[in-house]
What we know:
- The complex is a heterodimer.
- Chain A has 10 helices and 8 strands.
- By secondary structure, chain A is of the alpha/beta class.
- Chain A has one domain: Rossmann fold (3-Layer(aba) Sandwich).
- In chain A, helix 2 packs across helix 7 and helix 4 packs across helix 10.
- The longest helix of chain A has 26 residues.
- By secondary structure, chain B is an alpha/beta fold.
- Chain B has 2 domains: about 180 residues, Rossmann fold, CATH 3.40.50; about 130 residues, Rossmann fold.
- In chain B, about 35% of the residues lie in helices and about 15% in strands.
- In chain B, helix 3 runs parallel beside helix 4.
- At the A-B interface, loops of A face strand 14 and helix 11 of B.
- Bound molecules: thiamine diphosphate (TPP) and magnesium ion (MG).
- Magnesium ion (MG) binds next to strand 5 of chain A.
Amino acid sequence: MSVKKITGEVYLKWYEDMLFWRKFEDKAAALYIQQKIRGFLHLYNGQEAILAGSLLAMNPGDKMITAYRNHVQPIGMGVDPRRVMAELMGKDTGTSHGKGGSMHIFSKEHHFYGGHGIVGGQIPLGAGLAFADKYLENPNVTLTYMGDGAVRQGAFHETLNLAAMWQLPVVFIIENNGYAMGTSVERSANHGDIWKLGLGYNIPCGPVEGMNPVNVYKGVQEAVDRARSGGGPSLLEIKTYRYKGHSMSDAQHYRTKDEVAEYQKIDPITQVKDVILKKKYASSAELEEIDARVKVKVNECVEFGEESPFPDASSLYKHIYDQENYPFIKE
Amino acid sequence: MRTIQFREAIAEAMSEEMRLDPNIFLCGEEVAEYNGAYKASKGMLDEFGPKRVLDTPISELGFSGISIGAAMNGLRPIVEFMTFNFSLVAIDQIINNAAKMKQMSGGQFNIPIVFRGPTASAGQLGATHSQAFESWFANTPGLKVVIPSNPYDAKGLLKSAIRDNDPVIFMESEQMYGDKMEVPEEEYLIPIGKADVKRVGTDVTIVSFGKIIKVAYEAADILAEEGISCEIIDLRTVRPIDYDTVIESVKKTNRLVMLEEAWPLGNISTEITYMVQKRAFDYLDAPIIRVCSADTPMAYAPTLVEEYLPNAQRLIEAIKSVSYAK
Ligand SMILES: Cc1ncc(C[n+]2csc(CCOP(=O)(O)OP(=O)(O)O)c2C)c(N)n1
Ligand SMILES: [Mg+2]
């Protein structure tokens, strides 16, 4: 296994990235309240260590696909965050020209394959990306993310079997944040060890602690290496927590404030910050500089989004067929 | 008379029927402890308990199929889809099992089941969460498809749907759950398959159904001031379709505009248009026009939502066009 050393540099990158993702989401929530973002808005707050740890385990050609809680993953993969914010605001400069909205961020250039709104719908697609890489003999691995709720879909089970049979270079990552909307994991199955679902398909599987990026990194790196070396798929259940409601209108009666506070005690950003200070990778003053930089960057995203135009009405008919002049029915 | 919300009308219809028949149960995502994603089953877990009001995991295919099986064995399930967009992962069970069982078994099995939940758009929700599937289900023999446009109709129609011995698709809207209306406390039923003339008029017939009919009211109000009198027919059921009520109206007004939220190709408007030209060709003074959603997936940006959906202005243009008015 090609374990990378978790240097001070890595920690500092994690700190800045995760803080940026957190603040980006907070800003999106604020824009939602101002009605500059509409529809649904699913925030990643609390789950950042999963993305941070995963990115370190990925090679440049590797791919990522996930569900609708998907604003910051493309940013981690290299997409200009201003374009993501513009997409959330429905602007023409957004990643999908304002057509996708908050649930559908895509970037072919940065190997980010969405952004999917039907629970479980992305799982076969992730295996399909891996199928093509294997077919084309590309040495890439696809990381396919899903929520704890998504494993109750038939798509998950059918895909696991196929991926195992065909030994596809895919890593299935369940982000178990405890809840699918208001339904806790305990209330959606008669056991809580989601990772065990891999056993029936003879897929290497296991639980991973997900509030610390180091733990995530180790778990993901092992699975990525296995996939890249021809060992086929793995299934990881990464245990995490979502701080915010499911989307923006969620009274959260299904959990207590204490429960949220318990997880905030092991907040991934705080954990990373503590290591940085303890190991003296940076001083408090230097971290404050990062904080300030993050703030500026987030504000740039908002400015960019606000200044950008909405797509022209006529573009509704663009990007549907590859065929030019497709004869749409127009009354 | 008391005034209640659409969501309360739905909960009342289900609760009243469940009090009468212990074999009715309700299942779906978030229907029990959360009281329904849109609170359309509020209080039902408390009243009927977890045996009869069941939360499910996100397993639409599984709980739809299990409910159909339960219907084959004597129960009368109500299945809630959080929205009908998610019924697509269960559509095989609905089309191949629920709709066909009676016929395949030579009449041995009734499937008394209701699949209910919101259909069509609800703001800027993007391509996968805005789809109007009424005509998809209506295309399938073996199903009945009901789509009320107000709380009063919703309650009476849902009670009929629950009592019906055949599978009924019952379609609501996220944007209607908060609508308020006077609804009697006494029991009433509205028959499936009967259209309702929501407004009587003389010049143009508008046929519509579901929440989009509000656009027709808006347009009719504006046109009334200009001296054009619109008759508005609410189909309420799109399988079977009450053609007679439509034809009767067209024979009076000689003009027809269809208003529907679905995509244009092969939708309910197409079907109505066919039947009207067949049965009332000589009564038409102008070609029939339909106002539907664009022939594209829904998109997120507000400018594109505006371009996509039917609106009063487009409907007014259509009505003026069939009226040869400026
Ligand atoms: C097939 C389908 N059913 C229902 C929904 C509505 N829905 C959206 S998100 C969600 C909960 C998913 O929870 P989970 O998979 O744990 O992901 P999380 O939101 O926690 O990230 C539900 C039920 C949907 N989008 N698709
Ligand atoms: Mg979850």
